[in-house]
Amino acid sequence: MNLHHFTDSNFKKEVLESKEPVLVDFWATWCGPCKMIAPIIDELAKEYTQKLKVGKVDVDNNSQVASNYGIMSIPTLMFFKDGKVTDQVVGALTKADLKKKIEEVIG
Prior knowledge:
The chain is built from 4 helices and 5 strands; from the N terminus they run βαβαβαββα.
């Protein structure tokens, strides 16, 4: 499975302590734009398997992580490198725009 599911309990280990850069998609089941970008996130997880860890946080079920990062609007995409947020995007982006962001992060 290329797409990870991050939770309040595994976020520190899976994201903050990750050796590779991480893209986290903060989303919810009721969010229309989140559903729109879900297939793009899945594709990117497959395309960047060796270079980037890609996963999702369901904000309804993992409110601690969402609160820690001040998630106010979804979808919010956050890029982490060495345990720190390096970039953030709020709202749905095209696959091309997301790939540009990813390339900047993994450089």
